[in-house]
Amino acid sequence: MHDFVFRKGELYCESVPVQRIAEAVGTPVYIYSAHTILDHFWKLQRAFRTMKPVICFSVKANSSAAILRLLQRAGSGFDVVSGGELYRALSVGADPERIVFASVGKSNAEIAQALRAGILCFNVESEPELAAIEAVCRRLGRTARICLRLNPGIDPHTHRFIATGVPTSKFGLDPATVERLILDGDRYPHLVFSGIHLHIGSQITESKPFVQAVRVAAGIVTRLRRRGIRLRWLNLGGGLGIVYRNERPQTAQRFAQTILPVIRPLGLDLLLEPGRFIVGNAGLLVTRVLFLKETPRKRFLIVDAGMNDLIRPSLYDAYHEIAPVVTNGRSATKQLTDVVGPVCESGDFLAKDRPLPTVGAGELLGVFGAGAYGFVMSSNYNSRPRPAEVLVIGKQFHVIRRRERYQDLVRGEQMPEVLAS
User: Fold this and answer.
1) 417 in any annotated domain
2) Which end of the chain has fewer CB atoms surrounding its CB within 10 Å, N or C?
3) Cα(386)–Cα(379) distance, rounded to whole angstroms?
């Protein structure tokens, strides 16, 4: 569910007309609903309340400082995958003891940054990474908690680019290696092997892959316990799917009802790392139509948002629902239309062969489901300033990131003296 609804033919975010925001701020613009974000966080919290999980929002899904602060105030921790994301989380007042650091390629500088901050744990993806963390800990005189990321070799039935639990993925360690490393933990005197981390993919709409993955982890936990080794954490990661088109994803409640009977017998504390589930449907990208172009074979709506603003359709062939922001007086007749941007690439599109009503230049379109992996993956390709971001709280909207200006495009660039004259 989300808080973008049509009232008398006009799209609202919570209690604010989307058109009012677009006229005040300009387009393209990302608009987020605070109520939707919190509602999704609370649903997950309630669903797993019997295990009192530590919920660590996945910052890579949406790293807006205002949204991180909103979630921090609601009690969320954070899953970070870079020193920059760690910096962002700490800058909004996050408790370091509720931060987990993932990624397959942590630099020594990032490891040291996280150790000095006092994070909860590292999710470790390889033996060389273990050695690197051990070396940095030894140099700094620190100890680090570790969760080994298990690659269970399971197909999560999602897009191949976001399936991370298959045997050919760069992510995680096979079950035998996870078990061996924990048994040989004495080789790493500065590391505390605290748990097992699972993250098998993103936009997963059924429980079965999660259950299969947890059962692989359960076998490891059981065998280690027989050897006298007790872990503390099971990190289930994220990956819960949302509705973009006609998906029927599991609710938080149904997911918990399915997965908890498999987790409880392990006697471990639970970590969760939701991202898309929290913010995906809480965001809308609003774009203005520049031109209607009709050719003998195609009908194009050329809009002011491009692949540099929302790359998911070009990168994943992802579907996002698109609708006019104002529908009053519009004919019900629809025509197959490509919604394309101004970027000089054939791959610059938001939708292809989409049945859409007649829309003219100057009108606004809403691109739904843009709260996750939207602005956070945007770029300045074609030297295009990135869009503004707005957070709606009830009857008010707040600009949480101003639109970039041309001056921002060259900030940080320097001219060699030989070219300056």
Assistant:
1) no
2) C
3) 7
For residue range 128-175, list pLDDT tens digits in order.
Answer: 999 999 999 999 999 999 999 999 877 655 445 444 445 667 888 999
**Pairwise CA distance, residues 420 & 197, whole Å:** 52
Q: Exposed e or buried b for every residue in 343-374, given b needs 16+ CB within 10 A?
A: beeeebbbbeebebeebeeebbbbbbbbbbbb
Do 137 and 173 fall into the same domain? yes
Give residue 346's domain range.
4-31+280-410
Q: What's the whole-number average pLDDT of the chain?
A: 93
Which burial class, exposed, middle or buried, applies to 159 when counting CB atoms under 10 A from its CB (0-12, 13-18, 19+)?
Answer: middle
Whether residue 416 is contained in a domain is answered as: no
In this prediction, residue 210 carries a pLDDT of 83
Inform me whether the pLDDT recorded for 124 exceeds 70.
Answer: yes
Q: What is the CATH number of the domain that holds 300?
A: 2.40.37.10
Residues forming the active site: 344
CA nearest neighbour of 236 among 211, 206, 267, 261: 211
The region that residue 216 occupies, defined by phi over 0 for left and psi between -120 and 50 for alpha, beta otherwise, is alpha
Domain boundary among 209, 241, 274: 274
